[in-house]
Amino acid sequence: MSKQYDHAYFERWYRDPALKQLAIGGKARLARKVALAVASAEYHLERPIRSVLDIGCGEGAWRAPLLKLRPKLQYLGFDSSEYAINRYGARRNLRYARFGDFEHLRPCPPVDLLVCSDVLHYLDTRELDRGLPALAELCGGVAFLETYTREDETDGDDDGFKRRPAKFYRQRLQALDFTALGSHLWLAPHRRDGLAALERLG
């Protein structure tokens, strides 16, 4: 039976009081991630962000904290959960797509902040490799690509988790000319020339 990102899934992992310490969508934890991503993008762009693309957005949890920080920004989310899109798509500007669909899908110009949080380590390698080049093409500033690896101690949803080494992702993202900034942040390919030596990892 394939994994279902349905109402029960989001209730369990995002809102179950019994899993408060592990909750993927805990408000305070999410707010810190959003603030980190926004600040990093604005640091490198040297202006407030105006656009965000969220690939694997689920119910669009990033939208509200992003708009709280930058009320005028344009937010667009994509997810493969029919439940999430049917329930929240119209209100939160969410659309249906699987990650692999981004092999051909280019829904917008490059954005200031691209988010793909807690997604890549659940994808089969073939689908990941199909969609991954789009991240580089659609990122005009900074990408927040929260991804966990074989080297990490993880809590939470292990169903379908691919225990790949960190170098698996690092090699693929570097091949696309992303530059690692740390804390799951990657600088868009065309912006790396302006980096100081100690602003990048490695």
Automatic annotation (TrEMBL):
Key words of the record: Methyltransferase, Transferase
Q: What span is annotated as the signal peptide, if there is one?
A: none
Q: Entry's Gene3D superfamilies?
A: Vaccinia Virus protein VP39 (3.40.50.150)
Q: Which GO terms describe its biological process?
A: methylation
Could you cite one Gene Ontology molecular function of this protein? methyltransferase activity
Instruction: Write down the Pfam families for this protein, in alphabetical order.
Output: Methyltransf_12 (PF08242)
Q: Where is the Methyltransferase type domain?
A: 53-138
What is the designated name of this protein? Answer: Class I SAM-dependent methyltransferase
Organism listed in the record: Lysobacter cavernae
